[in-house]
Design brief:
584 residues, alpha+beta, Herpes Virus-1, Immunoglobulin-like, 6-stranded mixed beta sheet, 12 helices, 32% helix
Length: 584
């Protein structure tokens, strides 16, 4: 029997150009032809082995690799031979995603084979090619295919194939049946023992093996049927896709849409400002016309600057999207279309790539569209052009919240029942005050101990970048004061606001005694506990209860610059709690 051809390829696939009707999954993106020995790069993109070997190296590093247990036993084929000696690892750029990927020392042969691509190639060969010749005799038309030997057979050779003892048990299917099925699920054969299907999985070496490999090369290892371990490894891939990469894919798509919205808003703002500039400049002579052209040049500079920033962000998002999308598509196709052995064969490279995508830190969140707004201020002085004063400037500055400041005592101290106020100054990235208002300002004042106790704040836009804030607290205590611009806290926010109790002024007279201040009126009373004999209701010098110094008639306090004590406080310290306060 002749040496069987490579799985899933046709003998002339390397010389015929790609046909437009061929499925793109069966075509290499480098040579534009049907895959020949397709290999999976670490970024999960598949190319022909020859195409990978012809890629220009990005970097080269010499290093040796420790041999795996299977390679110590002599298994692994070419990979074992390459790993047994110090090799050179070549880094190339993937032709699809420009990702830096390492080619093992053994070359493309050390990469995982893409069995799904081989299935697509063979299916395209059956569907699109004309009558196939017999791979054994080369004369008759092929009608059947041996799934084990991977050869196309005519009817005569098929009968001879079945009569031989070594091939009598091989599975032979009709080519028309394969065409009608539309999908192939063929056995993966061992590269060390031709004709033996990879039905077992060596857990020590982490690779599929055949029965002969398990009995010889892996006899001391734990080998299980592939169907017993496929669920664990397949579920790991499925978990990475559904729990992490699918949500990441949706976020990247949404971020990409926001970048597109920002680009539209930028272009709309530029077009609007350019229209205003042209309308404003029509009424002026040559000097104003020159000023108009200067404004348009400045506008173009702003547009190019902002556009370049958005293009860079869009390119980063697109690349991240393509990386995640490629990983998700490959993993989902592997899980849905691959057999157990095919999944296990590509499991290692797939898990490494999906894990790297999950752990990637780049997940940008673009600025809202209002950050891209450019406006024209027609009344702002712009100096002179050719000796003529002109007005009108391009406003492209944006508020830098980290540089906004708050001024005024009202941000830290206030008095119960009295109005407090402070000023917010919005500044740009250079620290200069914004020349116009219109920013979204949020001020919130909440009692720290009583969460349902809030103070309403009023914000007045002064249209020059400053905002006056006023409020009137109704209850004393400690408050948390938030000052936000575009939903972001300014420097120092939230502030601690201390509201003092309202100062109670005295309603009486600061006197020496009620006898003197009332002109000897017996009915005159005082806030102190002093009394006089002879029927006087108030206090007198040197009599019982007199404080011996000037005091207030309303509350009895002896300090002139003091706050009037309320009745409750007086009752707690005075034995004459029944006295009424009287203004003399």
């Amino acid at each position: 029997m002749s040496q069987p051809e490579q799985k899933g390829t046709r003998r002339d696939s390397g010389t015929e150009p790609r046909d437009v009707s061929v499925s793109p999954r069966a075509v290499c993106h480098v040579c534009k032809r049907l895959y020949r020995d397709p290999r999976i790069l670490p970024c999960l993109h598949t190319f022909c082995s020859d195409c990978i070997s012809q890629l220009e190296p990005f970097s080269v590093s010499a290093r040796s690799r420790r041999r795996s247990p299977a390679e110590e036993d002599g298994g692994g084929g070419e990979r074992a031979e390459a790993a047994a000696r110090p090799g050179v690892t070549v880094t190339v750029l993937c032709p699809d995603c420009d990702c830096e990927v390492d080619i093992p020392p053994s070359g493309p042969a050390g990469l995982s084979t893409d069995h799904l691509a081989l299935d697509e190639v063979f299916l395209e060969t059956l569907v699109t090619a004309g009558p196939l010749g017999c791979d054994l005799c080369g004369e008759g038309a092929a009608e059947r295919r041996c799934e084990v030997c991977c050869v196309n057979l005519c009817e005569f050779c098929c009968q001879a194939h079945r009569r031989q003892r070594r091939t009598a048990s091989h599975s032979v299917q009709g080519l028309e049946e394969l065409k009608a099925a539309g999908r192939l699920c063929r056995p993966v054969l061992c590269s060390v023992h031709p004709g033996q299907e990879l039905r077992l999985f060596c857990q020590a070496c982490d690779l599929p093996v055949c029965l002969e490999c398990a009995a010889t090369l892996h006899r001391d290892h734990r080998c299980c049927p592939a169907q017993d371990v496929i669920h664990r490894h397949g579920d790991r891939i499925r978990q990475l896709v559904t729990a992490h990469l699918r949500p990441r894919l949706e976020r990247l798509e949404e971020s990409l849409k926001k970048v597109d919205v920002s680009q539209d808003a930028l272009q709309a703002g530029v077009d609007s400002a350019a229209s205003e500039v042209r309308a404003f400049a029509r009424g002026y002579a040559s000097a104003v016309e020159a000023h108009c052209l200067a404004l348009l040049r400045r506008l173009e500079e702003v547009r190019v600057q902002r556009r370049n920033h958005l293009h860079l962000q869009r390119a980063q998002l697109q690349q991240a999207l393509l990386d995640v999308q490629g990983g998700v598509e490959f993993a989902e196709r592997l899980l849905s279309c691959g057999s157990d052995t095919e999944i296990l064969s590509a499991k290692g490279v797939t898990l490494r790539r999906l894990t790297a995508l999950v752990e990637s830190s780049y997940d940008p969140r673009p600025a809202p569209p209002d950050h891209a707004i450019v406006s024209f201020l027609p009344r702002e002085p712009a100096g002179e052009v050719e000796g003529y004063p002109v007005v009108g400037v391009i406003h492209s500055k944006m508020v830098d919240v980290s540089r906004c400041t708050v001024e005024g005592e009202g941000v830290q101290r206030a008095t119960e029942g009295q109005q407090g106020h402070f000023t917010l100054l919005c500044r740009d990235s250079s620290g200069g005050q914004m020349a116009r208002g219109g920013e979204h300002i949020l001020v919130s004042i909440v009692h720290k101990e009583k969460k349902n106790c809030t103070v309403e704040a009023k914000v007045a836009d002064n249209s020059d970048g400053s905002y006056g804030v006023s409020y009137t607290p109704e209850e004393a205590g400690t408050y948390s004061l938030w000052v936000c611009v575009k939903t972001q806290h300014v420097k120092g926010s939230p502030f601690t606001l201390t509201v003092r109790k309202k100062f109670r002024r005295h309603g009486g007279t600061f006197h020496c005694c009620s006898f003197c201040s009332s002109g000897g009126d017996k009915e005159a009373r005082c806030g102190c506990p002093g009394t006089m004999p002879g029927g006087f209701q108030g206090c007198g010098h040197a009599h019982k209860g007199h404080p011996g110094k000037p005091h207030w008639s309303c509350c009895g306090r002896t300090a002139e610059a003091s706050e009037c004590l309320p009745h409750s406080v007086l009752a707690a310290v005075s034995p004459r709690a029944h006295l009424r306060t009287l203004e003399l």
